[in-house]
Amino acid sequence: MSIALDRVDQEQLTLVFNSKPELKKLAYEFCSAFNTKICKVGGSGSSLYMVTPSGLPAGFITTMKVMGGETAYVYDNEMLIKKEKSSANVGRDARESNKISTLIRSLKKNNEYPNDISITKAYAATATCAVLPVKDQGRYGAPSMSVHKEMAKSLIEHFLGIDTLSVNHYADELKKMYSDYLVNMKTYNESTDDFTRFCNGFKLIGICYDNAYGSTAPDFYLLGDGTMDGNFKVNVQGTLKRYESLKDTEVAVDAMMIATYMQGKKESRIYSERDEMYIGRIEQYIPDLDICAGYSGKVTWVAIPKTPKQ
Hints:
By secondary structure, this protein is an alpha+beta fold. The protein has helices spanning 10-19, 21-34, 100-109, 116-124, 132-135, 149-160, 171-199, 252-263, and strands at residues 37-42, 47-51, 57-65, 71-76, 94-97, 202-208, 220-228, 234-243, 284-286, 291-296, 299-305.
């Protein structure tokens, strides 16, 4: 059984395996242990990028010569490995060992090995930004009213019956204050209702880039169903699924509608031509579409609530 996806250049992979037998051995044992596959040859053949059975990114493996001429076997995954300190040869997001079996045991012991569930959880931890902009509509809390000293004095004297006339000087100002308060309270209540509606269930779409700047076309898309709890933690039901395009997915119609709307915003800062929905790198709730978007690292997340706005 091949340990590489069909889209991998097999001739290039064979050359890498022939020139780097230690990396070949690591690849076969790693893929066997964790049911991963090679999706890309990187670093001029010095590293092999992995994916889970569902195609979720699973970091990369590599080998290096260390002090004494020994071979170090390395697994690097910034999503799963969060060490307190770097080691002499690798950073905080990688594990190394001079034995493949020890490396595999270490990854299992620390729950740092890749699978659909662990990668989904790691992605979900970054997806909070897809919903919080809805809450941010009411970011300053419930609105309030305040009056200056002279107005307060007139109101108190009016209430106590000491002077019932002077407050009339502030009638127009008080009317405007109260009118503004009602408008702000309506916005606040709507934002609270919208946030609750999103938290109760949404379709989650991830637009995934090769770099953290979204400066190229997306590498792929992620799709799943999510909720957000009271601690602002996104929970994905099941696991995320990877797609090269949204055109043949359950959100194809939504994606097309979003793209049509966003294409009408070509003069706006929220317009982008890099992804199929023309979302780009934004953090905002878009009332006209009733969707919310935010970005974290290499992913722009889009949340579409399952309960429509009333």
